[in-house]
Design a protein that fits this description.
The protein is of the alpha/beta class. The chain contains eleven helices and twelve strands. The longest helix has 28 residues.
């Protein structure tokens, strides 16, 4: 019996899929399947029912799962205790980030952290704020960079790392390109291009619109601010973007101040408020807070 076999069993049980479990533990699907088959052969019992649309635990597998989790927890605690005594930080950290990172250079941060802690392996994925929040709460990722509105998400500790205005961006031949600002009522008459519902920056802008008593017409949505910028540059409407992003693309975009109070974008570093967090994840959080705040 090997530790990785227990890890793979837990992953398959929680994901309900060999493919998703393989992605979670960073190996191929055949590798996960083969190792669990070996574990089942050693125990002399099937642990998983593979006959349905999703993989389910058998009765034996359900009885074995708590013990597998307990073994993994005990081994991790042993490693953490040794690492604490020796001052060594090692392990894996799963980081998730929204695409709209504003002025944050996450690759540079990760590269500098890896140089400082070469024994820590980091995986990076992108997603919407709502999904990243759920993944951080469940422990699927250790640290998340999320967009937040005025009310921080429950179940997580957060550190605000960027708080910047959201402004309009239009093409240089757009009717509004002759202006430097636009009022709340007028912006409601133009086609807007925004990040999708579920992103923190969209929640912040929607709250600002509501507080101003307007309901803008959102014509296009995209999760990548670069796509919004490209649409705006083609004259399709007004893109709502972080001010630094627009400032870096003035060759193709004209910045437009929108006279709506509290129209700002906030990014936060987030991690679980309760439950286990590995020394490697703690080190990344502390390093990021030191560098970014």
């Amino acid at each position: 019996m090997e530790m990785r076999q227990l890890e793979y069993l837990v992953a398959v049980a929680e994901e309900g899929s060999f493919t998703k479990a393989a992605a979670r533990v960073y190996v191929t699907q055949p590798c996960v399947s083969a190792q669990i088959r070996r574990l089942e052969k050693e125990l002399g019992q099937d642990l998983l029912d593979r006959g349905g649309r999703s993989v389910q635990l058998t009765d034996v597998g359900a009885a074995a799962l708590p013990h597998a989790r307990a073994v993994l927890t005990a081994v991790n605690s042993l490693r953490n205790s040794v690492d604490d005594l020796t001052g060594l930080v090692r392990g894996q950290v799963a980081v998730g980030s929204v695409a709209s990172s504003m002025s944050l250079s996450l690759p540079e941060l990760i590269a500098d952290f890896s140089e400082k802690y070469p024994s820590v392996e980091i995986s990076l994925s992108e997603g919407g704020s709502d999904q990243l929040i759920a993944d951080a709460r469940s422990g699927r990722i250790d640290v998340a960079v999320i967009g937040v509105s005025a009310e921080p998400p429950g179940g997580l500790d957060v550190q605000i790392i960027a708080d910047e205005p959201l402004i309009g961006a239009v093409s240089h031949d757009h009717p509004l390109a002759r202006r430097s600002s636009v009022g709340a009522e007028e912006i409601a008459s133009h086609a807007l291009m925004c990040l999708p519902v579920g992103s923190g920056l969209r929640a912040a802008s929607d709250a600002a619109w509501a507080a101003a008593g307007i309901k803008p017409r959102v014509a296009y949505e995209a999760s990548d601010p670069r796509v919004l910028a490209q649409l705006a540059a083609r004259g399709l409407g007004v893109a709502i973007l972080p001010e630094p992003f627009v400032g870096a693309n003035t060759e193709h975009l004209h910045p437009l101040d929108i006279q709506v109070p509290h129209l700002r974008g906030r990014l936060a570093l987030a991690w679980r408020a309760s439950g286990p967090i590995s020394p490697a994840a703690v080190a990344l959080v502390e390093y990021a807070r030191t560098v970014l705040v």
